[in-house]
Amino acid sequence: MTLRNPRASVNGNTQIYVMSGKRKWHEADWEVALAAQSYVAVLAAIEEKQAAPKSKTKVKKGQKKPTRRSTRARKGEEEKKEEDNDVTMETTVDNKQVDEFWLAQLQDDVTEDMLAQEDVSVHVTWLNRTADRRYEVAYDEQVDVGSILCHVYLRELSATALELTHKSLARAQRCLARTKAKLAGQEVPEDEDGQEEDNERPPPSLTTSRKRQSGEEDTKTSSGRGKGKTQKLSKREMAMHISPLRTTVDEAKYEDREMLGSQPFESFSGDVSSANREVVRAVLTRNIKLLKKLTTDVYAELSTFDAPRSADISRTALHYAIDNDDLAAAALLRQTDEKVEKEKLATTPDVALPSHSTGQHTSRFSDYNRRAINASRGGKEGNNALLGDSYAARAATLSLDYLWRSAHASVEMLTLLYPTGDWTNGYSVGNNVCHLARCGNYRLVRKVVETLEKNGGWGFNELHHKVLADCPDDDAATPLLPVFRAVSAIKQAHQTRLRPLHLAAINPNTKYLEELWAVAGDEFSAIKDDQGFEPIHYAAGCESPEPMKFLLEKRCGLF
């Protein structure tokens, strides 16, 4: 049993007995039982009768009552009797109009958890009854949640006048009868009209009814035969017209799909772009099980395994597998070139928006502006800004060129992607070695240059890969490098003019660079390759700052 006082500021002696008990907390307790701005019926307080205070005037003993009464005294007694009669009439009228429940508007949400707690109050706005089922807004106060009977609906008559609906009145009376029976310890009456309570709909608001009335008047006054025709919207109004939102939402279609989650693959219902990015997500989260399912079972919903991550990030799933040295993911992606039937893949989605341009000109000697549309509009792309996600169609096979531009690619990854060693074929071998050296991946460069030097040369000598050793031997008497001349330190490879001095700058161990520098001298400090990169540029890509410090001490140019 708990004592509750819903209207303490109105009647200080009001007490209401409400049954409450503890129970286990559930997640559903956070659900809103009664939303804010809704109307509720509150159990009214029972006014207690107070004894009339006794008069403190003292009467002298032996004093007799006056037998003679003047006209003034008679008049005073008559007025007193009339006042007593008026007070009695007002008391009887007030007793007849005592409300057993009050109405209020909630200013806070009432959750399921609040219904089970004790001494929990919410802010409300009381409604004063002006007539039968007529109310008006009064003042704000706090009320205990346990004293709320049920929710009710009120119809707006004006900006300040409200009317209680008949079904809400019947529902409040039923809840009041059940509450009284509980407080008195009697049997609770059964609810016979439960269906009517659930079927009641909220009445339309005042603004909605006014719009409806104005629409009916316009229809009546419109010209033409039959019913009034709606006025057609202009082209500008049709373009600015926004269709109304749906009132109900299917929560199953809006499940939480985190970018870095580990949930199983689900069908995207024809969304090929989202399905392509599932491959990237599987590699980022190292979800080999999902990646295996994508590359073997459900690849019919994909259009490519080499899709970029987003419009701003052009890296693909294979790029992330190479950077993370994820051999398992790279092997699954590599197998798609052989095992996946390209005819069963989905069609690449088409972009509905067209790409705008200034058009094609017939002659380069024409006298009009031929700049691109984003340049002719002062840098504004227009609708072309929405085409960033439309990437060009990828090739049937995966692009493996990113291996030569990765600072974390390993020798095992090279063997996995090129199992037959066909990376040595073609004219781009020298350029690939230069790209790999500028990234600072000296371990893979050492293995590649050593293989090329033993299998044909390509302009590399033994000194090219000897300067990339990890560390010198423990024996101090053993030389770091074999005996060489100054011309061998600047020996250039075919096509790229890559020299041992360039490769020594990417080795964190500066002893090899110091020995080359001692033999070659300062005159070759600014020696360049075919792209104009100097040793200090290669040192900038090294994983250690020691080669850069050494070159700065030797006063090498930064530009």
Automatic annotation (TrEMBL):
Basic and acidic residues bias (residue ranges): 74-83
Domain of life: Eukaryota
InterPro entries, sorted: Ankyrin_rpt-contain_sf (IPR036770)
Biased composition (Acidic residues): 188-199
Segments of this protein annotated with the region Disordered: 51-88, 181-246
Compositionally biased tracts (Basic residues): 55-73
Signal peptide: none
Protein name per its UniProtKB record: Ankyrin repeat-containing domain
Organism per entry: Phytophthora cactorum
